[in-house]
Design goal:
- With 134 residues, the protein is an alpha+beta fold.
- The protein has a single domain, classed as Ribosomal protein L16/L10 (Aldehyde Oxidoreductase, domain 3, Alpha-Beta Complex), CATH 3.90.1170.
- The protein contains 2 helices and 7 strands; from the N terminus they run ββαββββαβ.
- The chain starts with 31 loop residues before the first strand and ends with a strand.
- The mean pLDDT is 95.
């Protein structure tokens, strides 16, 4: 699964997902892409699950680019622990996604195959998506 090799700080502030995506909102590498319509966080497990769904449908045809990277640490407290005592350990890494952000790109396949691969991948993601063509 994806996670940063090294970070400057072990734990990060939560932050807010305001506005729409400006960076990463255009298709750059492939011919077809899947773009987020709503905002949210996508974990490294969800990215890997969507990637595997697309790879299995493509059957070694075409090339896939992952345009997001989970570099934001998410901390969580165990169940039934009292309030206080600061932040707990890093549970997972996730990528903040704003509306308009391109998540995946595909090239080297027909439009029907790309559409079906993106449909299968969208079931694995927690944000609403739409398919775009370059």
């Amino acid at each position: 699964m994806l996670q940063p090799k090294k970070t400057k700080y072990r734990k990060v502030f939560r932050g807010r997902l305001k506005w729409k995506a400006i960076k990463g909102s255009d298709i750059v590498f492939g011919d077809y892409g899947i773009k987020a319509s709503t905002r949210g966080y996508i974990t490294s497990r969800q990215i890997e699950s969507a990637r595997r769904a697309m790879i299995r449908h493509l059957k070694r045809g075409g090339k896939i680019w992952i345009r997001i990277f989970p570099d934001k640490a998410f901390t969580a407290k165990p169940l039934e622990v009292p309030m206080g005592w600061g932040k707990w350990s890093v549970e997972m890494y996730r990528a903040p996604v704003k509306p308009g952000r391109v998540l995946f790109e595909i090239t080297g396949v027909t439009p029907e195959v790309a559409r079906e691969a993106f449909r299968l991948a969208s079931y694995k993601l927690p944000v609403k998506t739409k398919i775009i063509v370059d």
